[in-house]
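ok, trying the design again with the full structure, not the truncated one.
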């Protein structure tokens, strides 16, 4: 657990001692789900929120209590082509901001570094909590946009590969990407409502001068959802592209087979005539009959080849 006292100009880290909390001070606290139990008695958090901090779930919501706002949300990132989820919980009160994240969370270090770089000696002390609250969402949205851009890049690469060759492996990747994007979309949709609730500022914990920043967060949340909706549409277009490429390839195969059949059609007619076993075919008894027929077949085939080349069918 990391406890930071934001009351003075220089941010100080405190130890979790018996009398560490002073209601006149301002605190930013970062802890894990289990560590929240150690300070629950001080802030009197609702048991259901503590339960949500301890156990991972995919439910995204914001609850307004008398003394604090509580947010439970998930964020995600890609490892190769697999989507990984982590949970983020926030308690925002009059004099404290508590961020609940796993110790191994990839977002934990990024948020802490961003907050300390932008808070210390840069902003008025009375607005530090609101600024820290904004930085959390700013960092979160930045990372989510990066994840969607990474996904977009993968879709573009797959699009080029499908144009070159459509096969079952590409179809499997399309289906996998569709599952990933739809999961992202389902996770991001509730954030739109959270953005609206934050801007309302029902408990008035956000300093008046910072409301405009959270309006910007709300706009970015909408753009984020527009982005994932666009990616979902592009996945559908990939399916259409795959089907079109397969159809084009089949047409090419049919065209080749038709050309081959065209070459052999006259030859089949000629061989068919001499295979009818009529007794009155004079050239059958002629000693030059065989080489002449073979020559005719060669000339016909060569003539067809020249004709198709001129028509640019070959």
């Amino acid at each position: 657990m990391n406890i930071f006292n934001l009351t003075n100009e220089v941010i100080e880290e405190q130890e979790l001692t018996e009398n560490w909390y002073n209601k006149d001070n301002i605190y930013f606290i970062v802890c894990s789900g289990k560590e929240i139990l150690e300070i629950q008695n001080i802030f009197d958090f609702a048991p259901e929120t503590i339960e949500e901090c301890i156990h991972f779930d995919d439910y995204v919501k914001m609850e307004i209590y008398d003394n604090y706002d509580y947010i439970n949300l998930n964020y995600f990132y890609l490892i190769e082509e697999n989507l990984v989820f982590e949970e983020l919980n926030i308690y925002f009160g009059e004099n404290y901001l508590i961020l609940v994240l796993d110790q191994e969370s990839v977002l934990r270090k990024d948020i802490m570094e961003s907050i300390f770089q932008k808070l210390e000696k840069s902003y008025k002390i009375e607005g530090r909590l609101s600024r820290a609250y904004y930085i959390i969402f700013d960092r979160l949205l930045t990372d989510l946009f990066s994840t969607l851009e990474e996904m977009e890049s993968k879709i573009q690469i797959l699009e080029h590969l499908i144009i070159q060759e459509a096969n079952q492996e590409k179809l499997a990747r399309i289906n996998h990407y569709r599952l990933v994007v739809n999961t992202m979309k389902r996770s991001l949709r509730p954030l739109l409502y959270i953005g609206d609730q934050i801007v309302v500022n029902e408990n008035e914990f956000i300093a008046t001068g910072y409301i405009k920043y959270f309006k910007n967060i709300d706009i970015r949340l909408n753009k984020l959802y527009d982005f994932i909706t666009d990616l979902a549409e592009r996945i559908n277009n990939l399916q259409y592209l795959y089907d079109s490429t397969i159809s084009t390839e089949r047409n090419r195969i049919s065209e080749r087979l038709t050309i081959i059949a065209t070459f052999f059609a006259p030859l089949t007619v000629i061989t068919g005539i001499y295979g009818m076993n009529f007794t009155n075919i004079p050239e059958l008894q002629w000693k030059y009959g065989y080489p002449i027929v073979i020559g005719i077949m060669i000339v016909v085939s060569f003539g067809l080849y020249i004709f198709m080349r001129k028509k640019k069918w070959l």
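Keeping the full-length input from now on. The chain has seven helices and seven strands.
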